[in-house]
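$ run holo --ligand "flavin-adenine dinucleotide" --emit tokens
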Amino acid sequence: MTQELHIVGGGMAGSEAAWQAAQAGIPVVLHEMRPQIGTFAHQTGNFAEMVCSNSFRSDDDERNAVGLLHWEMRAAGGLLMEMADRHALPAGGALAVDREAFAQAVTERLRAHPLIRVEPGEITRLPDQGHWIVATGPLTSDALAQAIRAETGTESLAFFDAIAPIVHFDTIDLSQAWFQSRYDKGETEEERKAYLNCPMTKDQYEAFIDALLAADKAEFREGETAGYFDGCLPIEVMAERGRETLRHGPMKPVGLTNANDPTNKPYAVVQLRRDNALGTLYNIVGFQTKMKYGAQVEVFRMIPGLQEAGFARLGGIHRNTFLNSPTLLDDQMRLRSRPNLRFAGQVTGVEGYVESAAMGLVAGRLAAAEIAGQMLPPPPRVTAMGALIAHITGDADAKTFQPMNVNFGLFPPIDMKGGRRGRKDRYKGYTDRAKEAFSDWLASAPVSVGV
Ligand SMILES: Cc1cc2nc3c(=O)[nH]c(=O)nc-3n(C[C@H](O)[C@H](O)[C@H](O)COP(=O)(O)OP(=O)(O)OC[C@H]3O[C@@H](n4cnc5c(N)ncnc54)[C@H](O)[C@@H]3O)c2cc1C
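-- output --
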């Protein structure tokens, strides 16, 4: 009889891992503690819940590394990409989704799969026997985190991310804000108007920065370190780094013309992106924060167009649990000290929904092959998935290991023979090479896909 694969955590990684293994004909038991035991960020009992932004980021598979990950996941029959495409919202070149419909659809598909059994409840120790994938994410429950620490002997690292606030659309003043994607990017009119923009004059910007710097911030708890991951810096920390930092970051005014006042170039612009299919909610792009709630309302209502804003959700801070993967995991994503356990998702030190789901996809396939009695190598290094795995399981410096987004810097350099190539051509070179290698890897998979 075929052995079962147990997966702990029905988040981005666990959901995709379960789907991939089951599609390969392997019976899966999916253990999920929600909704019986919650986390401070998840709000439902659904699988693949997006806890903050509703975006899977760039969908450009020719010149963007995240877009390439999308392509690889689609090529591999990824469930999350299929559901994301089905519930996509206009977002001017990015893949944003209706989070509620997306998670609901993933949940229904997993529950309906004949080879997947859902086992509710928290797993509190590392099992000695059987094949397991641990995909418990940045908010791994305390009991399991302790069990992992006891096994690995290595302190998990902790740092803070921050949640961006969400605004009710009907509280935004459209005589001040206007719809436009930066550089009018997008295929359709809807996409070219995917963002709501709030303009600021120089005086308004300076007053806003003063307020950010003066605002009450949440305190760090004892024992927590205050190291931020650079890709997810809280807005007030960016402001602390320099008064112009935000104007060159999430508040940059380039590629936008104020439809309410076309001759006046804004000094800075705050962008909001649609957060649900109904268009009733908008999140403030890049405005992760650890300001206290009262301060957030006060400061964000200084933004022109948001003076009367009603907030569906305010920003917050959270801890992130991840392994020192370069020392602990082999290139099959197995714990060296206990090869019956694989790890996948954010807990391995990748960062982001897409990267986590992609690591789940690979872990599911590797585990399925192993259970079927064959060894599947990880995807080649020149692919986006392979580059990420190579980074976390070996290339990264273990002493300074921090979570990593996919990016072309993780790929082996492209052969530059044949003259100088512009950056865009180089990126295209990376993605062409990756697609060919990934297709070969898929074709080499020893297990049959499809039940
Ligand atoms: C507050 C917050 C905001 C974030 N914002 C973004 C963002 O905007 N964009 C982005 O790309 N990424 C964001 N991230 C990172 C995001 O969590 C990950 O990118 C992604 O969700 C991780 O996928 P995962 O499958 O590894 O973990 P999760 O999606 O978190 O899934 C882990 C699952 O394991 C379950 N679980 C935990 N412990 C146990 C246990 N012991 N037994 C059984 N089940 C368990 C949890 O309930 C959960 O369902 C954010 C993370 C946090 C915490």
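-- notes --
The two ends are 16 Å apart (CA to CA).
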